[in-house]
Amino acid sequence: MFQGKRMFRAVLLLVFVALMAGPAAAHPPSSIDLRYEPAGRLLVIGFKHLVQDGNAHFIKEIKVQVNGKEFAKIELAAQSGKDGGQVSLSLPEVKTGDLVSVKAVCNRFGEMKKDLRIP
């Protein structure tokens, strides 16, 4: 009977570790850097997302809202660097005081959002 309980506990521990390993390997970006370049009316979006294989684990989309309204959705198929990436987007009609919200979504798990008030 004692051997059966030990085996049950060992199997239970393995199942727990396996369930926890999936989300641990998948994660949202650790940071988003937003920079607005007024001369070109350009939003530069940098994201930090550490991965081993940028073809299998990457930021799959970046959603941009201006003043709460959807403005753009950028879909990505891979991550070129192991530490993150950068995209640029033209914002031709933003004005001083407008609120730009950016959400980066991992293809495996998690997302991060950051806001920028146009100076």
Describe the structure.
The chain is an alpha+beta fold. The protein has a single domain (26-117), classed as Sandwich (Immunoglobulin-like). It has one helix at 2-25; strands at 31-37, 42-48, 59-66, 69-75, 84-90, 99-106, 111-117. The chain has a four-stranded antiparallel sheet with strand order 4-3-6-7, with no helix packed on it. The longest helix has 24 residues, at 2-25.
Per CATH, which architecture?
Answer: Sandwich
Q: Round the Cα radius of gyration to an integer and report it.
A: 20 Å
Write down the domain tally: 1
**Average pLDDT for all residues:** 86
The fraction of residues in strands falls at 35-45%
Low-confidence stretches: 13-24
Q: In this structure, how is the largest beta sheet organized?
A: 4 strands, antiparallel
Strands ordered across the widest β-sheet: 4-3-6-7
Global morphology: elongated
Order of helices and strands: HEEEEEEE
Q: What is the number of helical segments per DSSP (H or I, 4+ residues)?
A: 1
User: Which class in CATH terms?
Assistant: Mainly Beta
Q: Give the full name of the CATH homologous superfamily.
A: SOR catalytic domain
Kindly state the percentage of residues in helix.
10-25%
Find the CATH topology: Immunoglobulin-like
* Derived structural class: alpha+beta
Q: What's the N-to-C terminus distance?
A: 71 Å
Let me know the number of strands: 7
